[in-house]
Amino acid sequence: MKDCEGKKGAVKYFFNLYNSESQVIPFYQSAWQNKSVDIGNWTLKTTNGSTARIWIAEGTTLYPGAYITFSPSYRWIDNNNESIILRDAVGDVVERTPVVNDNESDNRYWMRNNSGWTFDVRDLEKGELWSGCVKNVVDGDTIDVHFNICGVQRVRLVGIDAPDIGEEGYEEAKEFLNETCMWEEVMLDVDDEKQYDPYYRILAVVCVNETNVNEMMVGEGYAEVMYIPPSEFDCREWEADYTLSPRPTHFY
């Protein structure tokens, strides 16, 4: 949770400027707040370039511990010199973000916590499985997945290494992964020992239907194992005796 203390002390949010798929504004009701908050007719307004305004529907209520996500289907936030103003139903400013820039195509967000605004990744809850839809295949070991709460996130299949662009086998590995999971609902088992790589991509085992895709990429010869500790997954087992792993039985 990233605190964004507003006039009522009840709203929390973060935002990502980079592209239309990731321009998501989740609002959170503080867990310690024991009453509901009516945010109907509140507005979100950008301040740079061709400004845009989002109206929150009348009757919208934030209940204790709940969240509401706003993800417009169009690009509405500029990458540079952008700020967002949150106003209540009578037009009073509840919160204004600082003027920020974001030209990095990664999973980092501008977030507010107790120490102020920071540009960083979110800490994911350990022990949870995440579900989403694959929106893009970057290469043989990287995909973009759309989650309802946090927009599109870039995911690196943990424990494997497929050929990079320009290397032999690159096109074949990318095409196989594309055929396997593009537009598919996937489940992610995030590596709780190390959730992100140095490029801020989520490290995870990806499952489609009954298939562990990471393991399959190795078994089918499109990728090699790449064990980098610390990791909760021992990918070396996938190479030694390749069999399809069962799908997890629960997910977030």
List the helices and strands and how they pair.
Elements: E1 11-12, E2 14-15, E3 25-29, E4 37-38, E5 43-46, E6 53-55, E7 61-62, E8 67-70, E9 84-87, E10 93-96, E11 109-113, E12 116-120, E13 129-139, E14 142-147, E15 151-157, E16 160-161, H1 170-181, E17 185-190, E18 202-208, E19 211-212, H2 213-219, E20 224-225, H3 236-240
Parallel strand pairs: 15-18
Antiparallel strand pairs: 1-3, 2-11, 3-8, 4-7, 5-6, 5-9, 9-10, 11-12, 13-14, 13-17, 14-15, 16-20, 17-18, 18-19
Describe the fold and architecture.
With about 250 residues, the protein is mainly beta. It contains 3 helices and 20 strands. The strands form 6 sheets. A 5-stranded mixed β-barrel has the order 13-14-15-18-17. It has a 4-stranded antiparallel β-sheet with strand order 6-5-9-10, with no helix packed on it. A 3-stranded antiparallel β-sheet has the order 1-3-8, with no helix packed on it. The radius of gyration is 20 Å and the shape is elongated. The chain starts with 10 loop residues before the first strand and ends in a 12-residue tail after the last helix.
Task: Spell out the key features of this protein.
single chain; 252 residues; mainly beta; Immunoglobulin-like; OB fold (Dihydrolipoamide Acetyltransferase, E2P); 2 domains; five-stranded mixed β-barrel; 10% helix; disordered C terminus
